[in-house]
Amino acid sequence: MNRLSLRLWLDRALHLWRSSLQLRTLLATVALSGIAVAVIGGFISTSVRSNLFDSRRDQVVAESERATENAQSEFSNAAELSDSQDFDQAQSSAREAIARSTTSPGGTLVAMLRVTGQDGPVVMQNLVSRGFDESTMVSDALRKSVDADAAGRVYSQPVEIPGDDNRRDPGLITGSVLDVPGGGRYELFIVYNLRDVQNTLDFVQQTIAVGGIALVFLIAAVSYAVVRLVVRPVRVAAATSQRLAAGELDQRIPVRGEDVLATLARSFNGMADSMQRQIRQLADLSRVQQRFVSDVSHELRTPLTTIRLAGDVLYDQRDDFPAATARAAELLHTQTERFELLLGDLLEMSRYDAGAVQLETEPTNLVRLVEDAIEAVRPLAAERGSELRLVAPGGYFEADVDARRIRRILQNLLGNAIDHGEGLPIVVHVDSDADAVALAVRDYGIGMTPEQVERVFDRFWRADPSRQRRTGGTGLGLAIAQEDAVLHAGRVEVWSQDGAGSCFRLTLPRRRGEVPGESPLDLPPEDGLDIEALTSDGEGGS
Fold first, then answer.
1. Where in the chain are the domains?
2. How many Å separate Cα 342 from the centre of its chain?
3. How many other β-carbons are positioned within 10 Å of the β-carbon of residue 216?
4. Average pLDDT value for the chain
5. Which of 214, 364, 386, 404 is the most buried (most CB within 10 A)?
């Protein structure tokens, strides 16, 4: 498996781990239960091994004590130690006594070794059973303990016994001292094979291991069944909530039983019923509101047309009226125009709210569109003393857009910049890349606070209601601009600082149906203007 395949496998495993609650719960249960079984099994195995060894050691020591006493008795009962035949008979009797006193399923090994460093004649040769290796079985510590003992105690220690097929069986060696009349002191070593104890311990450990593994698998199976029983309703609830979010308001969770999950299902269904009622009420109210706005707007157009005609007649003849009447005619003309614009904006917003707006896109050169929009508002900018500048470095300027709506967005943004630009230059930036186009309108006027920036796209909201406007705005321009941008799958973003001006950036996809990524323009874009110098020199005319 190469590194790429391993990485893909790890990514899939990580995704499965993150996405499956059932898998995480099952693996956590198996891991914790496995640790618990291993700890308990290890404790049981250690306890059994300790108990078996202690029990067998006590038995071996007791047998060694009896064998030592019987052997010592045989030597003491010898009639004449000087008679080698009688002494040989005593040695044979002692060996038989040792054999009768020791029982081991694996057999025993016996060695009677004369204690070194004694004076006097050697009347009895060392007795060593076949297979007894003094160099490996008798340690220096055991020999020192046995030789130094004068009370006839039995000492023991573990030892390994060579077996068949290079096998080494566990064993226990005991040591004691025999006093041979006329022959000195002899060491008595008896080796007991503990293969039966090891077999018993192996069987117990295997049983514990098999039982532990079976218990872990049983716990895993039970956990899987329980988790599946609990997670399944959660999955149903998740799927139902997704369908509800997608607009299928009639979806509900089946209710079964009287347990906690059934209570959850009933609560969820109750919440869905309440949401459905409220959504329908809001939808009905929205339709009524939209119809009301549309009907009122349409109904007002007829009297507004009549008022507009009469106002135009009065406005054209204002020079023949007294000054107060002429001023009233001018106000009537201005407010009638504003009222007509407001009705148009209200109708447009009602169409957006009803979802009845359709795009009419065509390939459009945005630089030409921006130039036309700038020329349309240049007289108004000149009246306010603001110079309009266009920065278009070049790029993919054609895009599939609804030219009428983009022109309306530009007019709204330019009108706001003229109203709040304080007579300083207004810079319009156009740039694009292979996927998106961007327009930015930058002014250096009064700017906005962060609280005002958050509300700048709200309907009928103005940063300074008392400020006189020259563009005749209705308070719906930026809201409509945002709706037009969203209709193109684009976005309108704003940057502003109090006293440093504002910048609105429009980002649109170059092709209809796509979603623009990062905007080709910074917010705000760099334009190289020294506003402090312009302000100090009093420049800013058109």
1. 261-352, 360-537
2. 51
3. 19
4. 80
5. 386
CATH code: domain 261-352 is 1.10.287.130
Neighbours of 341 (CB within 10 A): 16
Cβ atoms of 266 and 255 within 8 Å: the answer is yes
Does 261-352 match 360-537 in CATH topology?
no
Contacts 24+ apart (CB under 8 A), 16-19: none
Query: Can you tell me the distance from the alpha carbon of 224 to that of 29, in angstroms, rounded to the nearest whole number?
Result: 9
Contact in structure between 192 and 186 (CB atoms under 8 Å) = no
pLDDT digits (tens, 9 = 90+) for 412-456: 888 888 888 888 888 889 888 888 888 889 888 888 888 888 888
Interatomic CA distance for residues 249 and 69, integer angstroms:
97
User: Between β-strands 426-432 and 388-391, what pairing exists: parallel, antiparallel or unpaired?
Assistant: parallel
Q: Which two tokens stand for residue 20?
A: 């499956």
DSSP secondary structure of 215-239: HHHHHHHHHHHHHHHHHHHHHHHHH
Asked whether residue 535 carries a pLDDT value surpassing 60, the answer given is no
Q: What confidence score (pLDDT) does residue 87 get?
A: 59
pLDDT higher than threshold 80 for residue 34: yes
Q: How far apart are CA 504 and CA 440, in angstroms?
A: 6
Q: Which CATH architecture has domain 360-537?
A: 2-Layer Sandwich (3.30)
The answer to whether residue 250 scores a pLDDT higher than 50 is yes
Which three-class secondary structure string do you get for 172-221?
EEEEEEEEECCCEEEEEEEEEECHHHHHHHHHHHHHHHHHHHHHHHHHHH
Q: Is the pTM of this model over 0.85?
A: no
- According to DSSP, the β-strands at 388-391 and 184-193 are unpaired
DSSP secondary-structure letter at 456? Answer: T
Closest by CA position to 189, among listed 292, 102, 82: 102
Residue bearing tokens 């609804």: 402
Q: What is the mean pLDDT of residues 173-185?
A: 82
Largest CA distance in the chain: 172
- The torsion region of residue 349 among left (phi > 0), alpha (psi -120 to 50) and beta comes to alpha
